[in-house]
Amino acid sequence: MAEPEPSIDELIESVIRAGTEAGYRIGRDDAGRLQVTATAGSPVDPPLTFRFTGQQLRDYYTSVATDTGKPGGASTPWETWMLLMSTHLSEAVYKAGTVAGPSEIVIDKGGFWIGPG
Questions:
Q1: Superkingdom of the source (predicted)?
Q2: Any idea where the domains of the chain sit in the sequence?
Q3: Which residues lie across from 43 on neighbouring strands?
Q4: Which of 23, 77, 109, 116 has the fewest CB atoms within 10 Å distance of its CB?
């Protein structure tokens, strides 16, 4: 039996959980968007804001879930999502620390990445 698709809220909570496990503090701005406000206990100033729609996040999950059972994937769609999304999240946060000027976390064809802020 196939697993049910996670809700947008479950996907957002999984991003927060993955960030927390990686040592990031993730909160919400006044508009409700996710933001990385600290990494390894050090403030991120200005906070690193996520910019994506619920549909983009769902499409990202669907794309990642297709790697289930393949090299680099895990045994279930959710495990594959958590594995690959958390890796993409860490890569994006790292990249944001290396670019000059403001940036945001966006979803591109490879998952979370950095876009201009």
A1: Bacteria
A2: 8-116
A3: 38
A4: 109
Q: Is 102 helix (H, G, I), strand (E, B) or coil?
A: coil
Each of the 117 residues of the chain gets a pLDDT tens digit; together they read 466 789 999 999 999 999 999 999 999 999 999 999 999 999 998 999 999 999 999 999 999 988 788 777 788 999 999 999 999 999 999 999 888 778 999 999 889 999 987
DSSP category for residue 97: T
Cα distance between residue 97 and residue 112, in whole Å = 14
Phi, psi of 102, deg, nearest 5? -70, 150
Rounded distance, CA 33 to CA 41, Å?
A: 21
Starting at the edge strand found earlier in the chain, the sheet holding 103-108 runs: 24-28, 34-39, 42-51, 103-108, 111-116
Q: Which of 101, 40, 111 is nearest to 81 (CA)?
A: 111
